[in-house]
Amino acid sequence: MSDKQAAPSKWFRVFGPPGTGKTTRLLNEIDDLIVSGVPPSKIGFFAFTRKAANEAKGRAMDRFNLDPDDLINFRTLHSFCFRYSGINFDQLMSRENWMELSEKTSFDLGWDQRNPEAIEDLSTALPDKKTVLGLINMARIRQITVREAYDDWDGAHDHAWPQVLYLADSYNNYRSSHRVFDFTDMLTVFLERAEETCPTFHTVFVDEAQDLSRLQWRVVNAIGRKTGRVLVAGDDDQAIFRWAGADVESFLRLPGMSETLSKSWRVPRQVHTLAENIVSRISDRYPKKYDPQEKEGEVTWVSGLADVIDEMDDETWLVLAQCAYMLEAAEEALRSGGFYYEMKGAKSVPEKVFLAVSAWKKLQSDKDINGKEVRAVYDYMTSGADVRRGFKKAARVDDDDLVSHDDLCRDGGLLVDKDVPWPAALSKLPEAHRVYLNAIESRGETFEGKPKIVLSTIHGAKGGEADNVVLFTDLSYASMRESFGSESGMNDLHRTFYVGITRTKGRLFLVHPRSHKEGYTI
Predict the structure, then answer these.
(1) CA of 41: how far to CAs of 30, 177, 424, 461, in Å?
(2) What is the Cα–Cα distance from 484 to 271, expressed in whole angstroms?
């Protein structure tokens, strides 16, 4: 790290292999600090995602009966920097700014809707490396020149260097002349003002440190200079976001003492043996040893999801692949089989469809529904046949009003008897939804609550776990091109499959690749 480093004695690393309770280790120490009398305002907890920061905040609030305002520094690094940068919300790049810049540069930039208070996961916090704007921001978070980033960019064949340079200059000039700021500016402006604006802390905790970019490490370093002690937790073996700017080397080079958590409460014995074989192939790693849980577990090779789909009624399942397109056939098999699942963070039954079907079932059971549910039901009914004309928007029912089937028939224009099953009552429901929901019910399953089956890329599942994992071993052509023949590229590939394998608490099903040349060797 280029900035002046804080005193080595104040830094302490916690290496947390999969399932060893790394975050719990940090939370327990936070508990000890508060018990010992350290004011909560003097404790900082910084994570890459809001979910992780809120987990720590929620536990401290519950145990010590604290208010959210007592823990104002339990947040993402972006949110913290925004708070102490002096930037106001009305100074952030707006939709109008993005549209104006798009028009001036003739680049389709879209617009950035992200709120610094609302980063939920890595996918919303990392630049899109496929776009020119993503390339420019990648250079900024990696602290390299745009030219260096361009020379290492897959999209270089689609955009000539003069185009990229033109947009980079235009983007910088626009923000400067209009005095507006983007997501990355929150970090850079904070760094300019940190000496004056950054609060002092007794202890600071940084979670998932292996995912921080070089720019974020500069932020951590600046906070560290005004902190008595800094506890940094992570696992370099799970550093799978290097392609998006994560700088695991800064984590490995951090001074001070360290601790390795030695017991996994997730990974079973057979899976642990396989995982250790894979992680041993990584050339630049911090050596660490941890024991598996007592459960033996199971590792089985299968030809595809069809080999295990009949077992997916019970327990929880993660279906993982390196790239999202590799999961398309698996998703189709689950839909055809009437399985309720989640993919890309969305449930397989859209919320609006679920609301309409569940609301109609309530009416059939003589239960009242609210105005929002009435509108969901009416949206899938035919005007004139199912609902009297003029009543389709249910304007007379407020969201908080509770009404019965009789109320709707008398005053709300409803023309459908409550004995009519939902597939017939909701006559405008798209046929694909109708067939799928019928298939779910035919299996005796419901489509409410959190699905037991989750389809995800390996990167999207980081931090997650399930009783069973189905892992596709196919590789994309892009990853083969980037990884084969490159030591750092192969290290990244080993880390990716190490993360995928260690998501299971019980059984691991490895899916044979299309061909040995297009698959990861396990």
Answers:
(1) 12, 37, 58, 32
(2) 25
Mean pLDDT of 94-113: 82
Going by the DSSP 8-state scheme, the letter that residue 504 receives in this structure is E
Q: Map tokens 């906070």 to a residue.
A: 223
pLDDT at 3: 53
Rounded to an integer, the average pLDDT of 302-322 is 96
Q: Is 11 helix (H, G, I), strand (E, B) or coil?
A: strand
Label residue 2 by pLDDT band (50, 70, 90).
Answer: very low
Residue type at 514 in one-letter notation: R
Reply yes or no on whether the pLDDT at 442 is more than 80.
yes
CA dist 432 and 420 (Å) reads 20
Binned at pLDDT 50, 70 and 90, residue 54 comes out as confident
Beta strand segments in 406-515, E: 453-457, 466-472, 504-511
- Taking CB atoms within 8 Å and a gap of at least 24, the contacts of 435-441 are 436/335, 436/338, 436/348, 436/349, 437/349, 437/353, 437/357, 438/338, 439/335, 439/336, 439/337, 439/338, 440/338, 440/339, 440/340, 440/349, 441/338
CB 506 within 8 A of CB 468: yes
Q: Which two tokens stand for residue 159?
A: 């955009």
Q: How far from each other are the two terminal CA atoms of the chain, in whole angstroms? A: 35
Q: Spell 478-504 as b/e; 16+ CB within 10 A means b.
A: ebbebbeeeeebbbbbbbbbbbbbbbb
Helices within 70-131 (DSSP H only): 77-85, 95-105, 122-125
The answer to whether 48 and 211 are in contact (CB under 8 A) is yes
pLDDT at 129: 60
Element (H or E) spanning 89, and its range?
Answer: none
Neighbouring C-alpha atoms within 13 Å toward the C-beta of 43: 25
Structure tokens of 397? 């029912």
E strand or H helix at 520, and its extent? none
Integer Cα distance of 473 and 476 in angstroms: 10
Give the distance from CA 400 to its chain's centroid: 32
CA distance 337 to 150: 45
Q: At what angle do helices 351-364 and 431-442 cross, to 10 degrees?
A: 60
Contact predicate 330/509, CB 8 Å:
no
pLDDT attached to residue 112: 54
CA distance 180 to 318: 42
Strand order of the β-sheet with 43-47 is: 74-76, 43-47, 201-206, 227-234, 11-15, 257-260
Over its C-alpha atoms, the chain yields an Rg (Å, rounded) of 26
Against a cut of 0.85, is the pTM above it?
yes
Residue 240 CA to residue 40 CA, distance in Å, equals 33
Give every CB contact of residue 414 below 8 A, 6+ residues apart in sequence: 386, 387, 388, 391, 405, 408
